[in-house]
Write a structure and sequence with these properties.
The chain is of the alpha+beta class and about 190 residues long. Helices cover about 30% and strands about 30% of the residues. The strands form three sheets. A five-stranded antiparallel beta sheet has the order 1-8-5-10-4. The protein has a three-stranded antiparallel beta sheet with strand order 7-6-9, with no helix packed on it.
């Protein structure tokens, strides 16, 4: 397992103790069990991205504060979630033929939010760019090679990618078919004003 992901539990525990919160307070606010928080903090399980973001919200800290120094922990500037790692959630008991997959959610009052659909055509060209946002990409179709700083990550239909947009980045479509993705930008409100 990736050291960075294991260190997430240590970071959660450190912040929780610094804020003098007990596990049950964080679990209740995050909508998860006490046992899950304990397992995450002790490195026995890795939270999904939605669960992690709910925990960060429950700790009442800025998203950017939690992820500051991410690259110092493991040398990685991104989190990739493969489509087989998403969990199904149950909705209406009486509904048939509806499958919900929990991909990503965020609802901190200190975070501004933007969502766009992006299509990257074959042979498209663009220099690396930076944004003042954390970026979440969910691949709807196709395949993309994402360059973040000097690393290349391939994501395909159903995969997601989360990273700090302040690192230079560019998607490259090396395939013969267009690639489509849902892009979510999360800004600190101070950066929006």
């Amino acid at each position: 397992m990736d050291d960075y992901l294991l260190d997430i539990g240590k970071q959660i525990k450190k912040i929780r103790k610094k804020k003098q919160l007990i596990i049950s307070e964080v679990a209740t606010k995050a909508g998860v069990s006490n046992g899950l928080i304990s397992r995450i903090e002790n490195g026995r399980t890795i939270p999904s991205l939605p669960v992690l973001l709910n925990i960060i919200g429950a700790l009442e800290i800025e998203l950017s504060s939690f992820f500051d120094g991410m690259e110092k922990i493991n040398g990685k500037k991104f989190i990739v979630t493969r489509k087989n790692e998403y969990s199904e959630i149950e909705k209406e008991v009486e509904a048939e033929g509806f499958v919900y997959k929990f991909i990503f959610n965020k609802s901190l009052s200190s975070i501004g939010f933007e969502a766009v659909l992006l299509e990257v055509l074959p042979n498209s060209k663009r220099d690396k760019v930076t944004t003042d946002a954390y970026e979440f990409k969910y691949m709807l179709s196709g395949k993309i090679s994402y360059i973040i700083d000097n690393e290349e990550i391939e994501i395909t239909e159903g995969d997601s990618l989360f990273f700090d947009g302040r690192f230079p980045h560019v998607p490259i479509n090396k395939d013969s078919e267009p690639a489509k993705m849902l892009v979510l930008y999360f800004f600190n409100e101070t950066e929006l004003s």
